[in-house]
Specification:
Elements lengths: L1 H17 L16 E5 L3 H13 L3 E2 L8 E17 L5 E15 L10 E10 L5 H35 L1
Length: 166
């Protein structure tokens, strides 16, 4: 009985590896992106970039000379805007806007692409009866926005590296 269980387990594991299974959040990165230097980013963007790179077997470089690609953040802005107000005078709907303007360089300070921008916005209902829960929801949405921005940044960096090779 134990042998049959081990055989089933090994079969399932081998099928998972054969189908291209990978951990959630990981991205297939080229070698140049596995070592990235991020210059001028906020702490939240920096932390999310570290997390995405770590999940993809990459890391943030300590200096631009050690990096395969350098990302210079030119402007970063996160705004919260009230969309509607309830009868009590408190916000009912909120919009979160994130703006990121950046440029890619190689480790010799050569520009890889012109300035790029990423803009992301999310709306959510702000229920005033569950204030603590909505604060947690807003923090979670902010983290998801940063994660999406990092993924978009990575895909654009990959395109910049591929265009450089051509």
């Amino acid at each position: 009985m134990k042998i049959a269980r081990k055989i089933v387990l090994l079969t399932v594991l081998s099928l998972l590896t054969a189908c291209g299974y990978h951990l959630r959040g990981s991205i297939a990165l080229p070698a140049a992106l596995k070592n990235m230097y991020l210059f001028g980013a906020s702490g939240s963007l920096n932390a999310e970039t570290k997390a995405v790179l770590k999940a993809s077997d990459g890391k943030l470089a300590d200096s631009p000379n050690d990096a395969g690609i350098v990302v210079k953040v030119l402007k970063e802005d996160f705004r919260r805007r009230v969309l509607s107000v309830g009868s009590t005078g408190k916000s009912s709907e909120v919009e979160l806007n994130y703006y990121l303007r950046f440029q890619f360089y190689d480790n010799k300070e050569n520009t890889l692409q012109d300035e790029q921008t990423i803009e992301i916005s999310r709306e959510f209902f702000n229920d005033q009866t569950a204030i603590l829960a909505k604060e947690n929801e807003e923090a979670l949405i902010q983290k998801e926005i940063y994660r999406q921005a990092v993924r978009m940044l990575m895909s654009r960096a990959q395109a910049a590296i591929e265009n450089k090779k051509l």
